[in-house]
Amino acid sequence: MAKCKLLMQTAQVQKLIDYFDGYEDDKVKCKFIGKKGIKAEVECETEMSPEDAAAYCKGLFKKTKEGSYLYFSIQPDGFFG
What we know:
Blueprint: E1 2-10, H1 13-20, E2 28-36, E3 39-46, H2 50-62, H3 65-69, E4 72-79
Antiparallel strand pairs: 1-3, 1-4, 2-3
């Protein structure tokens, strides 16, 4: 599996960090690694492209209670070298 970095942002970014830090399923394995400005950096281990991983993670969070009402952004930030 390749590792990519995702940037996640919302007014209550801790909710994204709490959800994705340690999240794992058959498609992605996520780990919070720090902050880049006002965005949370999350390492994502996956076979998907960074763009597809970002879209997949966005869909996961949209299904949560907080994701149904919070405005948030999940964007790819490339591969880890």
